[in-house]
């Protein structure tokens, strides 16, 4: 079994106080690991489990990192949309893969709710949560392990050839997402040195696919 989240876990253990990526406020590896646990816990609280897809359309790189790895940690499949896509294109993608959840930070949830037939709830980051659940409320849980449980479970394992991330880039007019397996992300991570850069570099192809004309998701060089 394999899971790209193992790469993040090792980096977090060895570099707890090190900044994972440049963000405001700073996001340390320790904080990143904790937030992914809460994100996974939020998904489990909404009965989203292993193999289920989760829509993600975010402009903030730190929140994007948490959402992708939190979804992966739950054994689920992040479906990452370019922020340049129209609401109708995002909704069509959600319906194509059967995503019941979507997290957004820079668009109104109203039209997305009306356009998508598969989406059952929406998580809003720094925008009006009247038509959805706020990011802070979503993260308010005991993590991937149920409250009081002592399983010691840190993540849900997946096979190397299992789908890890699906992407809808700004030029994917045919409606077909690009698929990255856990093995693909592991291969991308293997090219990075030092080890603390591996979990960020692993998502480099994903970020370039959804935002090819903007600055790439870059690890902290220090």
UniProtKB/TrEMBL annotation:
Q: Positions of the region Disordered? A: 165-201
- Tell me which Pfam families the record gives: AMP-binding
Keywords annotated in UniProt:
Ligase
Q: Which SUPFAM superfamilies match?
A: Acetyl-CoA synthetase-like (SSF56801)
Q: Which N-terminal residues, if any, form the signal peptide?
A: none
One MF annotation (Gene Ontology) recorded for this entry: ligase activity
> Which sequence ranges are marked TM in the entry?
none
Question: Where does the record place the AMP-dependent synthetase/ligase domain?
Answer: 11-114
Claim: Magnesium is one of the keywords in the record: no
Domain of life, source organism: Archaea
Q: What is this protein called?
A: Acyl-CoA synthetase (AMP-forming)/AMP-acid ligase II
Organism of this sequence: Natranaeroarchaeum sulfidigenes
Gene (UniProt)? caiC3
């Amino acid at each position: 079994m394999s899971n790209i989240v193992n790469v993040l876990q090792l980096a977090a253990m060895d570099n707890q106080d090190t900044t994972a990526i440049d963000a405001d406020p700073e996001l340390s590896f320790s904080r990143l690991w904790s937030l992914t646990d809460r994100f996974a816990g939020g998904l489990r609280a909404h009965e989203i489990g292993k193999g289920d897809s989760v829509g993600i359309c975010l402009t903030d790189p730190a929140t994007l990192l948490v959402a992708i790895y939190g979804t992966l940690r739950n054994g689920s499949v992040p479906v990452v949309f370019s922020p340049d896509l129209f609401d109708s294109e995002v909704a069509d993608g959600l319906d194509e893969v059967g995503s019941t959840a979507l997290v957004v930070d820079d668009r109104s949830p109203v039209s997305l709710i009306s356009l998508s037939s598969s989406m059952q709830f929406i998580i809003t980051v720094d925008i009006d949560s009247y038509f959805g659940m706020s990011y802070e409320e979503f993260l308010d849980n005991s993590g991937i392990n149920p409250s009081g449980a002592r399983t010691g479970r840190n993540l849900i394992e997946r096979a190397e050839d299992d789908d890890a991330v699906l992407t809808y880039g700004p030029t994917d007019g045919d409606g077909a997402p690009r698929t990255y397996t856990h093995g693909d992300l592991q291969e991308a991570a293997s090219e990075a040195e030092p080890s603390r850069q591996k979990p960020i570099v692993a998502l480099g192809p994903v970020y370039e696919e959804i935002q090819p004309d903007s600055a790439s998701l870059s690890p902290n060089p220090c």
